[in-house]
């Protein structure tokens, strides 16, 4: 089980309380698809993903980005049991969708960049450390079925 400090818990709660889920989710997923184009292979039914403008303007990318961000709410509400919280989602991504587990880290990196840009000077090194720890724990929970 992961140990969370009071600062880490408060920081994660604060970040998500200020989150514009639709915008941040869309921008994080779009950034991931642009920067790491091989991740597009999982979104073949999303239509035009041929360039950055098409990806940014794609309503299916926007919708799925929001779904991903809202999915992180489950971890925020269950920080003491993230592994169990994502057990079903882990099986879905590993066994049905066959998602490369490294993609969770890539998306987490893109999400960190988007959140940092939104929080500006409030995204201090301590805040980043707490946020990245949270995302690493979620990513590990999603990857557990791959082992």
UniProtKB/TrEMBL annotation:
Classify the source by domain of life.
Eukaryota
Keyword ATP-binding assigned: no
Keyword annotations from UniProtKB, A to Z: Heme, Iron, Metal-binding, Oxygen transport, Transport
Instruction: Keyword check for Heme, yes or no.
Output: yes
Q: Where is the Globin domain?
A: 3-147
Q: Which SUPFAM superfamilies match?
A: Globin-like
A molecular function GO annotation:
peroxidase activity
PROSITE patterns, from UniProt? GLOBIN
Q: Cite a single GO BP annotation.
A: hydrogen peroxide catabolic process
Gene Ontology CC terms: blood microparticle; haptoglobin-hemoglobin complex; hemoglobin complex
Q: Give the family this protein belongs to, as stated in its UniProt record.
A: Belongs to the globin family.
Q: Can you say what this protein is called?
A: Hemoglobin subunit epsilon 1
């Amino acid at each position: 089980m992961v140990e969370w400090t009071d600062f880490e818990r408060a920081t994660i709660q604060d970040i998500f309380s200020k989150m514009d889920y639709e915008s941040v989710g869309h921008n994080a997923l779009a950034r991931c698809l642009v920067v790491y184009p091989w991740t597009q292979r999982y979104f073949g039914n999303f239509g035009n993903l041929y360039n950055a403008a098409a990806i940014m303007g794609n309503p299916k990318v926007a919708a799925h980005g929001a779904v991903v961000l809202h999915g992180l709410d489950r971890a925020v509400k269950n920080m003491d049991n993230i592994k169990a919280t994502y057990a079903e989602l882990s099986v879905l991504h590993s066994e049905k969708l066959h998602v490369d587990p490294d993609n969770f880290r890539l998306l987490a990196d893109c999400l960190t960049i988007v959140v940092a840009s939104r929080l500006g000077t409030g995204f201090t090194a301590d805040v980043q450390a707490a946020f990245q720890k949270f995302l690493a724990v979620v990513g590990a929970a999603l990857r557990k079925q791959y082992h």
